[in-house]
Write a structure and sequence with these properties.
With 126 residues, this protein is α+β, with helices and mostly antiparallel strands. Helices cover 17% and strands 29% of the residues.
Length: 126
Amino acid sequence: MSQMHLPARIRYEYKEEKDVSLSYTHGVWGGINPQGEIELNFYVESDKVPTFSERTIDAEGVLGPELAPYNEDARTVVRNIHSKILVNYQTARALLEWLEEKVETLEAEEAGVPLSIENNTNEREQ
C-alpha cells in the first residue's frame, strides 16, 4: 500500500448564496428531532396585531381615537419564525464552542481587555 500525501494546510473559501439575507432574532425554540438532530427555530417577537380597529366620527365629522379590541387580563405576543436550522451533534458541539468564544470576547471587551487576533476568529472547525 502506498502512503497518502496529505497537504500542509487546507484553505476554506466562503461564498454567499445569491439569496442570503441577514435576520435579527429575539430567541430560539426547538429540540432534538426523531432523526437525532438538533432543530433550531429562530423567531422575532411582536405584539399581536388586532384583527380590526375602528374610529368613531362625531356629528361635526371629527375623528375620534382609534379603538381596537383589547384584553386587559392577557397579552398576546406572536413569535414569527424566520429561520429553521438543523444541526448534527458534531456541528452543535462546534457551534457551542464558537459561541462560547464569542461571548468570552464580548465580556473581555466590556471589561476593557483589548482584542487579540486569537479571540476574534470567526471560524470554528468541526
